[in-house]
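Nitric oxide reductase NorC subunit apoprotein (Diaphorobacter nitroreducens), 290 aa
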Amino acid sequence: MNKRQTRLFAIVATGISAAVFLLLTFDSHRKFDALTNAESITPAVVHGKDVWHKNNCINCHTIFGEGAYYAPDLTKITKLRGETYLKAYLKDPSKFYDEQRHRRLMPKQDLSDEDIAGLIAFFDWVSNVDNQGWPPRPILVTGSTLPGADRSAAQQADDAKIERGGIAAPPGARPLSGNEDPIALGERVFRTATPACTACHSTAPGVNMAGPSLAGVKGRTEALLGSADYKGQAKDVAAYLHESIVSPSAHLVPGPMYSADGTSFMPTTYAKDLTAEQIDQLVAYLMSMK
């Protein structure tokens, strides 16, 4: 190219780049209200945002990947834990974590009921923002997973053995025939329901998270049903597990981490979000944990 051609190329390229940038900027602003769920910004949400900033929560936690990365990302916390759990947790975090065992302790902020309600409303608004998978690898609450999170090849291969059952398949999962073992199908539901059971429950013995470990749940349930401590309506293990999924407050597992004021922290949404077949598959999987 000669000097004139070079100058012309630079001018045209700069003009095209500027036009593309302005077009993308305009398109982003056009979609902001829909992407951010702006119509749901209520006075309670605004108050919760102010509580978030006033208490410097960002010094430890992150939202949309923005923060200190010392404590869990809270972008989807209302979907992983639920309002009942968060209310009890924010009132007195010391009931949920032990500084000696966990090497950290969420400080008690002495928040008012109004502040707690606002903070939960703010978290709920954040959880419904279309963040398009950002951050790609957040620091999550113990044991939880989010759709789109990186998965190892071994995990993907394992997932490929499990029927979809109406729930979106993870990356790398192959189509299956639908003739798989109900226990395998139930394991898939266990890991991919919303929120995933793995967000609160471990299958390792003695590893209690937001919910008790499910290792050996069948044997423990048999002992519970034979005692005077059981307060629900189930007559056998399968019925108890079904009851625990669709009506978690029918019987409360002892412990401040699992319930408050007679209400279980277990989500009450599975009865409508899962099909009857999926619940039966989940029960079959839990029944296998002898």
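Residues 1-35 form one domain. Strands lie at 62-63, 66-67, 259-260, 263-264. ok done for today
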